[in-house]
Design goal:
This protein has 14 helices and 16 strands. The protein has 393 residues and is of the alpha/beta class.
């Protein structure tokens, strides 16, 4: 079965689409059969993955999704068939040459424990012969891209990082040599739900900026719906059950297998397709670190606000204190961990984040964590009500 989809991802209103830096991947009649195995692990898989898109591989345990992923960078050699990246057969390159052009991110980040963050990220650029200045600049740029302050994190060791921070460094390392293709194998499976949501949002933000071709294995249909431009649902033997956009899979499952796999309440899962960017954002009073506390309180009170969003010198939100919590002469950076939402996060994410917020809302950010506004519970529930009315006709 050959599936070839080329529908471009629609940008959010007001977003200018970034230039595609990814490469098309074509799998043609790919088979993987292990010695002594009667049934192939992957049997005649044919698939086109458009350049610059995120494609999520999902299916029941043992269906061949990870095997299919690993054949793209020849961690597993195909028994037969061809795989082409940007029109070039991967068999025409040495394994090392191929893997230097493909980023690979796995669960937990898989960092070398005896190397600092900077040295972990620098591995592939060093192998490619980059000079020291270029490598140093790349390390700082990538840490900034994954929202880790280079000054704080480049000289730390993996043991000094949280699970989420290790995974961010793993993503940075996968991007280090600016490869057109990134492969991800259950990248967010080993972290808690809140960290997982933040990492997913980070991935969406990075992809808006870089437009790589990302192939990601997941076992979570909600994650596939949130992240995927397209979703590949596989049956045993890596047979394609359906390969389509999340909207098409939820709205028109190909058969009973897909319907059962997506699960009951697929109409509720449609809410996972609605992004925070589609909901009205409010703009409460903001303050910069270092501003006069008296002046900030006066502005907030005149605006009718009982709290303020504190931004750093680059316009990124770092706290959401109540006015009573502002002490001293100058606004200082709050110590609590502020949970932000990327504006491409889903309404389900927004509701989950609001449950842990005392403000009844969530701070929304755009590229490089730039502050965009706040989404409140009332705006989300009103948007859901309007969608339900439209669905009823």
């Amino acid at each position: 079965m050959t599936t070839d989809l080329n529908k471009a991802t629609e940008p959010v209103a007001g977003e200018s689409p970034a230039e595609i830096s990814g490469a098309e991947i074509v799998l043609d009649d790919v088979v993987k059969k292990y010695p002594g195995q009667k049934v192939p692990a992957v049997n005649s898989l044919s698939l086109t993955i458009p350049a610059g898109e995120i494609v999520m591989f999902i299916g029941p345990s043992g269906c061949g999704k990870t095997t299919s992923l690993k054949m793209i960078n020849r961690l597993i050699e195909p028994t037969s068939g061809t795989i082409k990246i940007d029109g070039q057969d991967i068999k025409g390159q040495s394994e090392n040459e191929l893997r230097r052009k493909i980023g690979y991110v796995i669960q937990g980040g898989s960092l070398f424990p005896h190397m600092t963050v900077a040295k972990n990220i620098a591995i592939v650029p060093k192998m490619l012969g980059w000079d020291a200045d270029r490598i140093d600049q790349r390390i700082d740029d990538l840490l900034d891209l994954v929202s880790l302050d280079p000054g704080k994190y480049r000289d730390r060791y993996p043991r000094e990082l949280s699970g989420g921070q290790q995974q961010r460094v793993g993503v940075a390392r996968g991007l280090a040599a600016d490869p057109p293709v990134i492969l991800m194998d259950e990248p967010f499976g080993a972290v808690d739900p809140i960290t997982r949501q933040r990492l997913q949002d980070e991935m969406l933000s990075i992809q808006r900026e870089l437009r790589k071709t990302i192939v990601c294995v997941t076992h979570d249909i909600d994650e596939a719906i949130k992240l995927g431009d397209r979703i590949l649902i596989l049956k045993e033997g890596a047979h394609v059950a359906q390969y389509d956009t999340p909207e098409a899979i939820l709205g028109a499952p190909a058969d009973e297998f897909v319907e059962d796999f997506v699960g009951a309440g697929s109409s509720l899962k449609q809410l996972s397709l609605v992004r925070v960017a589609e909901v009205e954002l409010r703009k409460p009073t903001t303050a910069k670190v270092g501003d006069s506390v008296a002046e900030v309180k006066q502005r907030a009170e005149s605006n009718g606000d009982r709290s303020v969003i504190v931004l750093d010198d680059r316009g990124r939100p770092v706290g959401w204190p109540w006015l009573r919590q502002l002490k001293g002469d100058r606004v200082v950076e709050p110590t609590e961990d502020l949970v932000n939402l990327d504006h491409r996060a889903t309404l389900n994410d927004a509701l989950d984040t609001m449950l842990s917020s005392s403000h009844g809302g969530a701070v929304v950010t755009g590229d490089r964590d730039q502050y965009l506004g706040v989404v409140f519970f009332e705006a989300v529930t009103e948007h859901i009500r309007l969608l339900e009315e439209q669905a009823r006709g």
